[in-house]
C-alpha cells in the first residue's frame, strides 16, 4: 500500500506538541532519575511517560508499522528492518532537561527501507519545530505551537550553494561528550575535542576550526546543521533514535550525512560514528571537507 508521508508528518507534529506539553509540565526539581550504563547516562520518568504516549498513539494509528524507541529498545534484540518503522527518542537531551537547560527535544523519525523519510524534531523550551519529508524539503518554525500557527506553515530551510562550507578553519563545529565515559567512543571524542581546538599546521597560528558547540542533543545538532547555524556536527556513538529524524531534516535541507562505516548510510542501532555536513552540493561536493575531518578524527 502507498505510504502517505504527509499524513505521517502531520500525526508526528501533533504527537510532538503533546510530548512538548508533558515535558514542560514536568518540574525539574522533582524529576526522578535512573541511570543506564553509568551516572551520566540518565533516564527520567518523563522520558518513559513520553515514550509510552508516543508508542500508544503510533501503534493505534499505524498498527502495521514497526516501532523502535530509545527507552524500550532491547539491546541485541531490537532490529531495524526494511519495514516502515517509527524510530523515536522521547527526550533527546535528557541531561539538559534534568538541569533545566532549555535545549531538549522530542525526536520522531520514520524510515522506509531504512531510509529516513519523515523527521519531526520539536524543542518545547523554545517552541521551535523542525520537520522534513523525503522529496518535499525541510522546514523550521518558530512559535510553532501557538494557536495561529496551528495550520502548519514553517520557513523552508535550504542550504544555499553559496553558503556552502569550503574550509574547515572557518567552520563552527558541533560535537558532544555523550554519555560514554570510557572505551573507544570516549577516546575518539576526547581526541576530536583536543584536535579541533588546536592550531592548524599553516605555521601562522591559524585555528583548526572557528569553534566548537555542544547543544546537548544529537537531533538539535543535526537541525542546527540543516539550518546552517553550524557547519559540521560530528559525534562518535550515536544511535538510530538520536539521528533518524534529524537525518531526514538535514538531507532534505541539502546537507549530507555520513556514517563512520564507509558505504553504510543507514541509521544503525549500534552506536556508530556519524558526521553531518552542511552544503547543497551533495556528497561529492563535500568530499574534501569530509576527508579533511576524517584525518583529524
Ligand atoms: C543523547 C544526546 C547527547 C548525545 C548522546 C545521546 P539522550 O541522547 O543526544 O547530546 O551526545 O549521544 O545519547 O540520552 O539525551 O536521549
Describe the structure.
This protein is α+β, with helices and mostly antiparallel strands and 297 residues long. The protein has 2 domains: 5-157, 2-Layer Sandwich (Fructose-1,6-Bisphosphatase, Chain A, domain 1), CATH 3.30.540.10; 162-296, D-Maltodextrin-Binding Protein, domain 2. It contains 8 helices and 14 strands. The strands form 3 sheets. A 7-stranded mixed beta sheet has the order 3-4-5-6-7-8-9, sandwiched between helices. Strands 11-10-12-14-13 form a 5-stranded mixed beta sheet, sandwiched between helices. Strand 5 and strand 6 form a beta hairpin. Helix 1 (5-25) packs antiparallel against helix 2. The longest helix is centred in the N-terminal third of the chain and has 21 residues, at 5-25. The radius of gyration is 18 Å and the shape is globular. The site of D-MYO-inositol-1-phosphate has 16 residues, from strand 4 and strand 12. Its cofactor is Mg(2+). It is an enzyme of class 3 (hydrolase). One of its GO terms (molecular function) is inositol monophosphate 1-phosphatase activity.
In a nutshell, what does this entry contain?
This is Inositol-1-monophosphatase. 32% of the residues lie in helices and 25% in strands. It is α+β, with helices and mostly antiparallel strands and 297 residues long.
